[in-house]
Amino acid sequence: MRLAVPIDEDKGLDSIVSNVFARANKFIIIDLVDHDIKDYEIFDNEAKTFPHGAGPVAIKILIDRGVDTILAPEIGLGTRELIKEKGLKLYLIKPGKKVSEVIKEVF
Fold first, then answer.
1. Is 16 in contact with 93 (CB distance < 8 Å)?
2. Which domain holds residue 87?
3. Would you write out the chain's pLDDT as a tens digit for each of its 107 residues?
4. Could you tell me if 100 and 90 are in contact, meaning their C-beta atoms sit under 8 angstroms apart?
């Protein structure tokens, strides 16, 4: 499983889940194998500066990076439909927690 979580600061797996999805400063992508974190990468979210359509752009960026699962606190209706249409899994989570804690809670 390759999952993405929106974050605002790069603190590795101790990064805090952002309050927003498409306008978050960064994303962390985690490779999860048998419920264990095998690897992760953090990168700047290019979609955050788009005046319109940040959600679909963020989804395309994540799909291009091989993401099949998204964990996020808030997703707009149009973006949620796009996630469904593309066959991605979506887990709604609470912001303000460490990414490592959220992974343990969800998986």
1. no
2. 2-106
3. 999 999 999 999 999 999 999 999 999 999 999 989 999 999 999 999 999 999 999 999 999 999 999 999 989 899 999 999 999 999 999 999 999 999 999 99
4. no
103: which strand partners?
Answer: none
Three-class DSSP category at 51: coil
> Could you tell me if 61 and 46 are in contact, meaning their C-beta atoms sit under 8 angstroms apart?
yes
What pLDDT is recorded for position 74? 87
Number of domains in the chain: 1
Contact between 41 and 19 (Cβ < 8 Å) = no
Write down the residue that tokens 């498409």 correspond to. Answer: 22
CATH of the domain at 52: 3.30.420.130
Dihedral sign from CA coordinates of 64, 72, 95, 93:
negative
Q: Tell me the two tokens of residue 46.
A: 């290019």
What type of residue sits at position 42?
I
How many Cα neighbours within 13 Å face the side chain of 6? 28
